[in-house]
Specification:
The protein is mainly alpha-helical and 138 residues long. The chain is built from 6 helices and 4 strands. Helices cover 45% and strands 10% of the residues. The strands form 2 sheets. The chain has a two-stranded antiparallel sheet. A hairpin with a 4-residue loop joins strand 2 (99-102) and strand 3. The radius of gyration is 17 Å and the shape is elongated. The model is unreliable at 97-113 (pLDDT under 50).
Length: 138
């Protein structure tokens, strides 16, 4: 009996983890990684690889490509490889630059003014949406 309870708890934890870390429809790699970093922090390349596995499994060179861009881990995707395109973000209509998806309530809610909701990419792409631009290498 106690073993069944443990298995059920493990299944529920797995379902919760999948729900909290799923990729939203048309969400780009960089927006996903940024969102996961805000929620859970950097844990190596976990979020980058999860995105690849869920949306672009054929992108087997993603990790190497990011490493060449200076992103050896998830936090460096948003710090070294890409940066927000603040000119584009400033030009967005006001209602778009304060929205954020809440996975717990499955609703859009107010968020910090930093990065707007993802502008979207085609399925299978590992490119960033228009909110991000490539950071120049120094």
């Amino acid at each position: 009996m106690s073993q069944e309870i443990v298995f059920e708890l493990e299944r529920e934890l797995t379902r919760s983890a999948e729900r909290l870390t799923k990729v939203r429809p048309y969400e780009c790699l960089v927006c996903y990684v940024n969102r996961m970093l805000e929620e859970f922090g950097c844990t190596g390349s976990r979020w980058m690889l999860r995105y690849r596995d869920l949306t672009a499994p054929r992108a087997t060179a993603l990790e190497e490509r990011m490493r060449k861009m200076g992103a050896g881990c998830d936090c460096e995707v948003c710090l070294s490889a890409f940066e927000p395109d603040w000119h584009l973000i400033a030009s967005l209509p006001r209602q778009f630059d304060r929205l954020r998806w809440n996975a717990d309530t499955s609703a859009v809610e107010k968020a910090s003014p930093a990065i707007p909701h993802c502008m979207g990419v085609r399925r299978g792409s590992t490119q960033p949406c228009l909110l991000w631009k490539r950071r120049p290498r120094r």
